[in-house]
C-alpha cells in the first residue's frame, strides 16, 4: 500500500502566544515540493489571527473530496468511451454541531458540471452511473463519515 505525507510547519514568531493572540498561518509542504500557505478558517479564528487568503483545513477537505471524485470520474468515463472536455466543480462543505456540540463538516455537496464531446454521447443514466461509481471508488469518500452528495450537470457538444 502507498503512504502519503505532508509536512506542516508553524512558527510563533514575535507573538506572545500565551495570550492566545497568535497567527494561525502556517505552511503545508508536499512531497513534490509544492508549498501551500494555510491558516485556520476565519469562521473559526477571527482575522488577524487567521489569514483568509490562505487555504484552511475545511476548504482543503472539501477540495480533496471533490478532486478524488473527479479523478475517478475521468478515469471511468475514459474506460467507458466517453470523452470529457471539461470538468468543473463548485463543491461546498457545511459545518454543523454534532450531538456532543462539536463542530464537524457534516455534509459535502459536489456540484460538478461536465462537458462531453466525441462519437459517444452519454445519457443522464450513464452520467449518474459514472458519478455513482466514482463515489464508490474514491479513496477519500470511503474514508469519511460526512455525508457526500453529488448535484451535478452535464452537457454534450457535438462537432459542428
UniProtKB/TrEMBL annotation:
InterPro entries according to UniProt: KH_dom-like_a/b (IPR015946), OsmC/Ohr_fam (IPR003718), OsmC/Ohrsf (IPR036102), OsmC_Ohr_Peroxiredoxin (IPR052707)
Tree of life domain: Bacteria
Name of protein: Organic hydroperoxide reductase OsmC/OhrA
Organism per entry: Bosea lupini
Amino acid at each position: 500500500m502507498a503512504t502519503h505525507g505532508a509536512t506542516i510547519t508553524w512558527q510563533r514568531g514575535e507573538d506572545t502566544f500565551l495570550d492566545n493572540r497568535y497567527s494561525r498561518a502556517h505552511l503545508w509542504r508536499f512531497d513534490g515540493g509544492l508549498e501551500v500557505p494555510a491558516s485556520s478558517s476565519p469562521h473559526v479564528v477571527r482575522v488577524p489571527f487567521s489569514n483568509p487568503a490562505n487555504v484552511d483545513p475545511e476548504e482543503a477537505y472539501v477540495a480533496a473530496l471533490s478532486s478524488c471524485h473527479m479523478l475517478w470520474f475521468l478515469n471511468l468515463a475514459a474506460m467507458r468511451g466517453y470523452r470529457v472536455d471539461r470538468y468543473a466543480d463548485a463543491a461546498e462543505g457545511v459545518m454543523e454541531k454534532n450531538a456532543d456540540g462539536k463542530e464537524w463538516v457534516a455534509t459535502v455537496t459536489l456540484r460538478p458540471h461536465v462537458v462531453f464531446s466525441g462519437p459517444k454521447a452519454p445519457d443522464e443514466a450513464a452520467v449518474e452511473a459514472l458519478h455513482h461509481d466514482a463515489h464508490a471508488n474514491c479513496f477519500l469518500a470511503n474514508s469519511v463519515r460526512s455525508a457526500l452528495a453529488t448535484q451535478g450537470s452535464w452537457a454534450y457538444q457535438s462537432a459542428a
